[in-house]
Amino acid sequence: MSDESRRAPRIGITWGSHATPAYMRKVLWYSDHVRAAGGDPILILPIAAVGEALAFVSREDCGLYQLHAGEGASAGDFDGLLFAGGDDIDPARYRHQPNTDTLLIDETRDAVELPLLAGALAAGVPVFGICRGAQLLNVALGGGLIQDIPSQHPGALPHGKGAFHEIAFRPGSRLARLAGGQSVETNSYHHQGLIEDRDLAPGLIATAWSGDGIVEGLEPEPGRFPGYVLAVQWHPEREGREGNTAYQALTQALFDDFVAASAARSAGPVEALG
Q: Considering the domain boundaries, does residue 5 fall inside one?
């Protein structure tokens, strides 16, 4: 297949029940990075939010023109799936009762994303999880979460509201390779998370941590899934500290790596037919 005839991989970006202009502008951070890496971003969101999202798209010259209703969506509709950040996962999904008043739960989004993720993992559709997306991957595979890090993890670093902290990577992991083998300072916008020796799901490996032991990166055990799977707890679609070139390079590498895996999957069957 020639470069001219090869289509951009279709990258589904999952989103929640909020489609106000403020929330929708956050979607553009993801879609801009996907497009810069060579992907074709498609927003997946609950049916109830589609009308509001369409109104935003029609008012804004944002380049985000493709929307896909999440209910009934199939992983096979996409070449790659990016599970984006957002509200908390319902604790019932990991067999817990809510034990903090800080939870902001989007049950509709849970109901859309969990079967979509299961389908992607089974079919080998590349998966990239960011923040909530990393937590979703862990929960989907039987792991748990800390419901509120500030109140339930003594000695925790600041993790919310755009804090910055260093992240160390497991030597030999995919994340370590993408980071060039060095620790990197990242942003942090989460209040939930997981600890490796208590919450980690079977089949996953923790490959990055902050200094307080919160897991910041997840990868599958070798051979666990037929396709690409990677998840990070920070927000690579958002800015790091000004002048942090290592963070900027890692951000580019993460999106390039995921979109390249999605492109390889989309190109494979077509080229085989040729």
A: no
